[in-house]
Amino acid sequence: SVIVGYNRRFYQPVREARREARRDGPVLVQATVPESIDGPAGEDPHFEYMRPFFENSCHAIDLLRFLLGDLRVDSSSHLRAPGGRLAGIAATLSTERGDVVSYLGNWSAPANFGISLFRGGRRFDLMPFEAATLYDRAIRASREEGFVQIEGIACELASRFYQGRSFAILP
Asked: Are 117 and 66 in contact (CB under 8 A)?
């Protein structure tokens, strides 16, 4: 199967974030990427419990690449739960230009998705996915249960949520 992500690059707030990220030199970026990952009680040799990471969290990395350009991993630490399953990732990423990203993949923990850009006295918060996460869960659950009409309504409401979203740059 082919997994296709939402292309958020065309959303106005994302374009504004990209302009902010690429002007006036390097930025410091904080990315918080929660995910509903719950490891198996027993062995999982194919790491199926990691599927949500590959299906969802990779879009945050793609979005960071769109905002900043190519990223390299400078350091990373893995949080392991009892039994050895991966429970989270903390990483420092950077770009050739000198941007520095603090990436926190906090799984099965209460948090909201967010990317914040910091430069001097400026801050740009890109956090459109808190409510979208709820829409995504509703879409996924209705699809899994075969409720096609509910899935359609959830998709329509999610599209309305994204239309015209705009974010301010805070001093």
From this structure: no
DSSP-derived 3-state class of residue 54: helix
Helix or strand run (H / E) with residue 59: helix 58-68
In this structure, are residues 40 and 85 in contact, taking their beta carbons and an 8 Å threshold? yes
- Angstrom distance (rounded) from CA 141 to CA 129: 17
Q: Read off the tokens for 145.
A: 């249960």
d(CA 101, CA 122): 16
User: 104-142: per-residue pLDDT in tens?
Assistant: 887 766 666 788 899 888 888 886 555 666 777 888 889
pTM: 0.66
Distance CA 44, CA 21 (A): 40
**How far apart, in Å, are the Cα atoms of 97 and each of 26, 76, 87?**
6, 20, 31
> And the tokens for 155?
């998709």
